[in-house]
């Protein structure tokens, strides 16, 4: 049974400006320690895309979960890593069902969609 669907779009220029202003502090606020390790391995442009994608995915998850980001669901409650061929795999300490995630980048935007399935 579908619990919820969430979608988000993000202008990567916004992430770039936050990264320039706050450096790694912004990334450390949004990313889990495993995600941050991957983030640090990338070039500057790829870091912006990666961070924007993770931010947007976590926003999409919170919409599908029905709470938004805040007290009930935080950035660190959600992790997006990759499988052996590069597909995103999302896990959450707040949800035990199946999570389907899609991330798409297009020049200056990233769009993400999350579907939560229970039982």
Structural summary, described in words:
It is a single chain. The termini are close together. The chain has helices at 12-22, 24-30, 33-40, 44-65, and strands spanning 2-11, 78-82, 88-92, 98-106, 109-117. Strand 2 (78-82) and strand 3 (88-92) form a beta hairpin. It has a three-stranded antiparallel sheet. The longest helix is centred in the middle third of the chain and has 22 residues, at 44-65. The protein has a single domain, classed as Alpha-Beta Complex (Ribosomal Protein L22, Chain A), CATH 3.90.470.20. Helices cover 40% and strands 32% of the residues. It has 119 residues and is of the alpha+beta class. 31% of the residues are buried. It has four helices and five strands. The model has no long low-confidence stretch (mean pLDDT 95). Residues 4-112 form the 4'-phosphopantetheinyl transferase domain. One of its GO terms (molecular function) is holo-[acyl-carrier-protein] synthase activity.
Describe the protein's topology.
Elements: E1 2-11, H1 12-22, H2 24-30, H3 33-40, H4 44-65, E2 78-82, E3 88-92, E4 98-106, E5 109-117
Antiparallel strand pairs: 1-5, 2-3, 4-5
Helix pairs in contact: 1-4
Main location: cytoplasm
Family: Belongs to the P-Pant transferase superfamily. AcpS family.
Function: Transfers the 4'-phosphopantetheine moiety from coenzyme A to a Ser of acyl-carrier-protein.
List keywords for this structure.
119 residues; alpha+beta; Ribosomal Protein L22, Chain A; three-stranded antiparallel β-sheet; two-stranded antiparallel sheet; 4 helices; 5 strands; metal-binding; cytoplasm; fatty acid metabolism
